[in-house]
Amino acid sequence: MSENAERVAQALEATIGADPVAGDWMEVTQERINDFADATLDHQFIHLDPERAAATPFGGTIAHGFLTLSLLVHLSASIKDETPDMTGLLMGVNYGANKIRFINPVPSGSNIRATATTMSVELKGNAVDHTRLMTVEIEGQEKPALVAEWISRLVFA
């Protein structure tokens, strides 16, 4: 067992139950939506065709749910929480998710940001599994776009 992993696990455990911390806003542009459609081969009209999408309950084009999910890495990087000293960290990887819900569509041109709060911490040898409740908010809307229980694995020397 790594002393560094044990120290970080204890520090992260102390944040369980703390208020969510928000990151910076970013715009979800139509260009980003189009690029994601090309990368994933998901060319459904609700994402790409403003005229047809305007006739739907969405009233215009919307981001793919999986685009919003994939932006969690970028969105979480701007969250300024009290990160413990990561001395000895070899790498951090996306380990998975316990639960993901797409609550509200993200209209093209909207600003979104993520909030995070620690749900659980598990020490696993030289690694720490850090599960956070991630909520992606849409500026000016009451309901969030996405709620996910996201697990990051931190591997230490």
Oligomer: single chain
Q: Structural class, please?
A: alpha+beta
Q: What is the general shape?
A: elongated
The sequence of SSEs as H and E is HEEHHHHHEEEE
- Amount of beta strand: 35-45%
Rg computed from alpha carbons, rounded to a whole number of angstroms: 18 Å
Q: Count up the helices.
A: 6
Index terms:
six-stranded antiparallel beta sheet, alpha+beta, Thiol Ester Dehydrase, Chain A, 157 residues, elongated
Strand-helix topology:
Layout (H helix, E strand, L loop, with lengths): L2 H11 L7 E2 L3 E2 L2 H11 L4 H4 L1 H5 L10 H6 L1 H6 L11 E14 L8 E14 L2 E12 L7 E11 L1
Antiparallel strand pairs: 1-4, 2-4, 3-6, 4-5, 5-6
Written description of the protein model:
With 157 residues, this protein is of the alpha+beta class. The chain has one domain (3-156): Hotdog Thioesterase (Thiol Ester Dehydrase, Chain A, Roll). It has helices spanning 3-13, 30-40, 45-48, 50-54, 65-70, 72-77; strands spanning 21-22, 26-27, 89-102, 111-124, 127-138, 146-156. Strands 1, 2, 3, 4, 5 and 6 form a 6-stranded antiparallel beta sheet that branches. The mean pLDDT is 96.
